[in-house]
Task: inverse folding
């Protein structure tokens, strides 16, 4: 009788895991990843923008298009994507004109990853960094961008930071799992942070 109960519990656990995997794949299929329009290659280089009202209308349309980019909650990737989890946040200090991207991560195996991030907001878009790094099994990735006063005004006006993790050794469909939208903004004096909504 005990053996039968153990088998029943095992089958129930497998069925629940299969259902969770099915739901996750269905959610991923409904939110395709879009790549940024014209990403600059150098940190601190700005996107083209228009100062008139028409340009602001185009900006708000771009914001709406990017609404589907990335997901909410912890970023957990399937094993074939090599990276297991990643949690990004951005800190900005206007007193020092520095923007820092931090990513706490774990991976199934050590792998090379390209990291890029940019912002969207009321004062336009701005590419802040793009770099390639070797990720170990777990660790913290940090990158600082020193920006001008003009760029810092865009940073502080940002509504969203988008962080893209590109894993060359992983299948191409993993790209849909590896984009984060940081929209939870907190400001304290000359310091601001952006993280993923909970």
Result:
């Amino acid at each position: 009788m005990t053996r039968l109960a153990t088998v029943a519990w095992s089958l129930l656990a497998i069925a629940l895991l299969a259902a969770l995997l099915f739901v996750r794949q269905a959610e991923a299929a409904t939110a395709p990843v879009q790549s940024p329009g014209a990403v600059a290659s150098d940190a601190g280089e700005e996107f083209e923008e228009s100062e008139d009202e028409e340009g602001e209308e185009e900006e708000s349309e771009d914001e709406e298009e990017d609404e589907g980019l990335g997901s909410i909650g912890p970023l957990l990737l399937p094993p074939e994507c090599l990276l297991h989890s990643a949690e990004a946040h951005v800190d900005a200090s206007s007193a020092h004109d520095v923007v820092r991207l931090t990513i706490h991560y774990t991976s199934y195996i050590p792998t090379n990853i390209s990291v890029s991030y940019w912002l969207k907001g009321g004062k336009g878009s701005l590419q802040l960094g793009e770099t390639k790094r070797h990720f170990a099994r777990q660790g913290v990735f940090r990158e600082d961008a020193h920006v001008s006063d003009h760029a810092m005004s865009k940073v502080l006006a940002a509504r969203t930071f988008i962080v893209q993790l590109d894993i060359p050794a992983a299948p191409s469909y993993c790209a849909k799992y590896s984009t984060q939208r940081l929209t939870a903004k907190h400001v304290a004096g000359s310091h601001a942070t952006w993280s993923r909504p909970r």
Observations:
- The mean pLDDT is 76.
